[in-house]
Design goal:
This protein is an alpha/beta fold and 373 residues long. The protein contains 14 helices and 14 strands.
Length: 373
């Protein structure tokens, strides 16, 4: 989550911009003194002063010597026409839906108009036009080629583009990133601390880039427990097409693992809520009680994981914090206060729930055969 100071700043700024947009403060109106604003909104004088200074820098307000601070001409139009373009790939995942929901909600809180642009393969025109027109853009993509039309557009955006999940600092774009290897490591460390030594990754092969990223993270996380070949052997990669739900494939493959494989894991590491749902169903059908007989962890937390049976231990990638930080950066870029391109690494957290326990295997136990596909 964002810091209390950042939250108070954003609250005051949003309310002042809303007052300008609604006509409560019109062109030529004088704002209350900064001390009055601080008392009115319950913030420090420093926070109130920072808001006013940034609105002056954004050409919404102007200072007049010995008179005070006034609303500039056309300020309402500038506030109300800010568009945030959320640029994503054309296929749908729970992770992407979470990104879009957070982006649209937080943009609306700032009085911005949210707009989703989905990039089909080779079709970047809408995104390029939006960026070249000076609109704000928040990207969640797997790759941007520097010499492509999109690459050239973001390189010239001057602080009006931010990337989440992909490091584009080489193109001058501030980027926010959670290392996949860190997510896998905190899961592997937690399972090992609980006494597990045999666990399997269940992932969807969404794209070559994402597949490779997850494989690298999985191998790093299990270093010292498995060789690279053994880690790969303990990876199930579902071939579900991008536009289809992987739950059934997860159900089939996990069922096959539990009934036919010699591995017999005591824990499953799933990537995404749909895969978790399929894995839970397969465990129930196989007579494996979660977490008594087998534990389940989700690498990507989602609200549904709280309501699963049992609630599923998951990695929280602090999505709200990532999007809030991105919008703060974009707002400063919009106001002409852009800073050098840097990489912001967000640390993932583990939300521990009831789906993980120490492994429990009775001598001579016999599990029912699973209905594999």
């Amino acid at each position: 989550m964002s810091s209390p100071t950042s939250t108070k700043y954003q609250t005051v700024r949003t309310k002042l911009e809303a007052a300008i947009r609604s006509g409560e403060f019109t062109t030529g109106d004088q704002l209350p003194a900064e001390q009055t604003l601080a008392e009115q909104y319950g913030v420090s004088l420093m926070t109130a002063r920072r808001v006013v200074c940034d609105l002056v820098a954004a050409d919404l307000l102007e200072r007049r010597d010995r008179k005070g601070t006034f609303v500039r001409q056309h300020a309402a139009e500038r506030v109300s026409t800010t568009t945030l373009n959320l640029i994503v790939l054309a296929y749908d995942t729970a992770f992407q839906r979470n990104f879009l929901n957070q982006g649209m909600r937080l943009a609306e809180e700032r009085g911005w108009r949210g707009n989703v642009i989905r990039l089909a393969r080779g079709q970047q025109d809408a995104a390029v036009r939006a960026i070249q027109d000076g609109e704000l853009a928040l990207l969640m993509l797997e790759n941007v080629q520097p010499q492509s039309a999109l690459g050239r557009a973001v390189k010239g955006a001057k602080g009006r583009v931010v990337s989440i999940g992909l490091d584009l600092t080489n193109l001058g774009v501030r980027s926010i990133y959670v290392e996949a290897s860190r997510s896998f490591k905190i899961v592997a460390d937690y399972l090992r601390a609980q006494g597990h030594s045999e666990f399997v990754l269940v992932d969807q092969r969404v794209s070559p880039a994402l597949y490779e990223l997850h494989q690298i993270g999985w191998r790093k996380a299990t270093t010292g427990l498995y060789t690279e070949a053994e880690a790969d052997e303990r990876s199930i990669h579902l071939e579900t097409p991008n536009f289809q739900c992987p739950s059934f494939d997860a159900y089939s493959e996990v069922g096959r693992l539990l009934s036919e494989s010699s591995l017999q894991p005591t824990a499953l590491v799933c990537v995404g809520e749909e895969i978790v749902q399929g894995a839970l169903a397969a465990c129930r059908y196989a007579g494996r009680e979660v977490p008594r007989d087998i534990s389940i962890v989700n690498i990507l937390d989602a609200p549904s994981m709280i309501f699963a049976h049992p609630p599923v231990t998951s990695v929280d990638v602090n999505f709200e914090q990532q999007v809030e930080l991105a919008l703060d950066i974009l707002q400063r870029g919009r106001d002409g206060l852009a800073t050098p391109a840097t990489l912001h690494v967000v640390e993932p957290l583990l939300s521990k729930r009831e789906s993980v326990a120490a492994p429990f295997l009775e001598a001579g136990i016999s599990y029912p055969a699973s209905a594999s596909a």
